[in-house]
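Schema walk-through. Below, the input block comes first and the output block second. Nothing else is stored per chain. Lengths vary across the set, and this one has 366 residues.
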Amino acid sequence: MIGWNHYNPVEIHAGLDCRKEIGYFLPNAGTALIVTTKGIQERGQLAELTRYLPLPYEVFTAEPEPDLDKLDTFYQQNKQKIFHIIIALGGGSVIDSAKALSCAFMQTEHEKPLHAWLREKKPLPASALPLIAIPTTAGTGSEVTSFATIWDRQNMKKCSLSARACYPKVALLDPYFTKTLPWKQTVYSALDSFSHALESLWNKHATPISLFYAKRSLQIVMNSLHYIEHDPYDMKNRYHLQEAAMAAGVAISQNHSSISHSISYPLTLHYQAPHGLACSAFLLPILELVIKNNAFVLPLGEDFINGMHEFLTRYKPYILIRKHCSLEEAQSKIDEMFTPERAGTFVLNLSKEDVLAILKRGYELQ
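--- output ---
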């Protein structure tokens, strides 16, 4: 690790009821575009946020795992409108959709901007509309990264929109919006941030700052998740999980994710495995491999390593993935599991046979 850089321009405000402060971050005039989901609207969470919104607004209802063509279609249908700020209220898919739209509505060059940027490889935008990200899950960390995962279902590919313009202007971490999150989604989200943090500890591009945030995130998740299992409305620990997701997001914003994410993308694309589950499903066999080769980027105490092992054996993502695909189905997508920008960051040089062994080991675990 000779020489490193750190850049993360997101202004972060965290704490119960910080949603009430949203007016401080809005322009004095203009129209907001709110990106959210149908479920958030039905649960009254959008209405709760807009109580504190001094601007007129329009709503775009996002879908899980945002589709490139659907986002381009919304842009085409609304490009004559003038939005001054975008607000994302939702999980990772919502925030990623909002990032894509914040870039699209700032440009006038392309009729279908995502098609141009992600399929035709035209230059990515240098600027975007300001974005306020308000996560309703505690896992993705998208509120503090410059990445957006967009799915090209026409070509059955996962795409990454990655540009400094994609950083949100502000992240508001209010655990109020996570208190009704069902237990299964709470676990999947926590596994997502756990995977981001672990991926930083076995990452060739780790920095002192990413390692600090990654270890902090892991400590929080291991200490806090089990409390919510017994008390879903434990706001203290829901807040801590949001802090963990943000910390892991800051880590991967510097070093990007690694091999477990590379493995995960075809599991989501072809078998509809939720992202948090897909990217954590094989963490334990990868962890065993890293321990065997003593390949962590920084020294970790035996108690800490044992704690990570115990956490994964408690929540068993390697068992849960079996509801979505068999070992044979997972192995059939092996060629798609080697995305160079992800697999290439792993501290060990893996062959296709190594990844097949990771998959096999994951399905052997009980």
